[in-house]
Amino acid sequence: MIALMQKQPFTALAAVYDAIMADVEYDHWADFVLSFARDGGLVGPGRALDLACGTGGFTRELRAAGWDVTGLDFSEAMLTEARSRLPGVPFVQGDLRTFELGERFGLVTCVFDSLNNLLTPGDLGAALARARAHLSPGGLLAFDVNTRLGVRELWEGDAIEGLAPLPDGGEVHYHWSHHYDAEADVGVVQAFCRVDEQEFVETHRERGYDPADLEPLLSAAGFARWEIVEYPDYAPPEPDAPRVWVFAWAGEQ
């Protein structure tokens, strides 16, 4: 008999996450971020902090580009996978809203709409403030978020399903259904997975943030200036943009 287990977000999923996300273009995102950083005058490669690093997909690209990178994530299960894939890279468990590493970095990143998992502006503002506190003078924070429209419309009634091969020769069957909870103003994902005789489901929630939501939070966090753009051409976001990228610079002091 197959046992279905309800799991906390990013716990059971960790072991099959990379298989399901095999097509994610971490390399292209890294080129996008690092090109902007170079054009903006950031001297590198230097020290980088990858927030909400998960299993280390983006961390790997930063390291391949020569950055001395540290990864931070709330999920120990995801970090276990990251450590096995990237031995020698320091990975730290921490909460985006409260972490304190006691060091600073020239570049801080947080990709793949990870900040949308923070469901209140207060929590997002706290995370931005912690990121700012860990930047060296003149350093750069780069992150992406789904907009309100992106969460509200693109997630409504959508579902993805497939089979993905696992490194041990097995496979994971996944079915992820999405809907928009209008009362809570969040998108909800029911992430179902089956591996052999084990089934589990995790419930993930995201809140959308528009540029108008982000700008006062960036200001309050102490950033000197920022640009909000679309991928991949760095153009100003259209009103119907489902996702935006933010590049926020620390001051020189």
UniProtKB/TrEMBL annotation:
MF-aspect GO terms: methyltransferase activity
Keyword Glycosyltransferase applies: no
GO biological process, one term: methylation
Keywords: Methyltransferase, Transferase
Domain (Methyltransferase) ranges: 49-139
Domain of life (superkingdom): Bacteria
SUPFAM superfamilies xrefs: S-adenosyl-L-methionine-dependent methyltransferases
Annotated protein name in UniProt: Methyltransferase
